Structures
1.
Amino acid sequence: MLTAGVHYVGPTHETSVEDFDRVVDVSLRGTWLCCRAALPRLLELDRSWIVTFGSTAALVGAPRLAAYSAAKGAVLNFTKSIGAEYARAGLHANCLCPGATETPLLKQLMAERPDAQHFRDAHPIGRFATPEEIAGVAAYLVSDEASFFVGSAVVCDGGFTAV
């Protein structure tokens, strides 16, 4: 499993076309290209799984992250579409929407935020996810135990979108 993402942080009206396109190209176009390449082989199997990566930004507004939020929302809806399209062929496509996760990108973003502690405190669990926690959810989504998940937004965010 591999995921990639980039941010552009700033006021929407100051976002350049180039920055917007870069965020959408990595998140949405990259997801589409990977799925398009994998689907022919996956459809040859009796059962198969696709887990795309959205974000809490796909579900709630994210100030100063309009391009990222738009791209991740599109990834979620793209996943719902392929989930519905290929479910009868045995494909289980779901979108994992993690909250803030301790990655190098998050560390960089936190260093640049004037409200870093406030952002951490906005998570009812009181911390960010570890990469291992997110990987565990992804592993569940490709298991037989998750066989009824199709086209779902699976949120793992420490309660961030609950409040």
2.
Amino acid sequence: MNYKRLIISLVLPQLAGLVGSFFTVSTISTWYDFLQKPSFNPPSWVFGPAWVLLYFLMGIALYLAWEKRFLFFVHLFFNAIWSIIFFGLQQPGWAFVNIIIIWLFIIFLMIKFWKVNRWSTYLLIPYFLWVSFASVLNFSIWYLN
């Protein structure tokens, strides 16, 4: 086991989440709470634990498919800037465009990771499902506002 690679794989996705949370937390009570949201919008407290778990699974997937790390890092960039666009810039429409890019990247990563290590693809399934749901949620918020 390559511990240095494992630590990098686990820490980098969490750092992307940390960047996103910086822009998210500061606008929850001043902007997001006042938006119209669909009936299926989860409570705000769900998002933090869900993302910590998803970033952890993404990190393990990255470790198992390290050969495809460049693709993963490009994808992680789009993941990190979603919160900046949605919360920081308060642009749900542009955030929706960005989340579709993320969604497509996840599919692409799952295909590429499959060729390296099938478990890496299985670990991305919860992320794919969550981003699919988040895409619908993002679109709904944009549409309602």
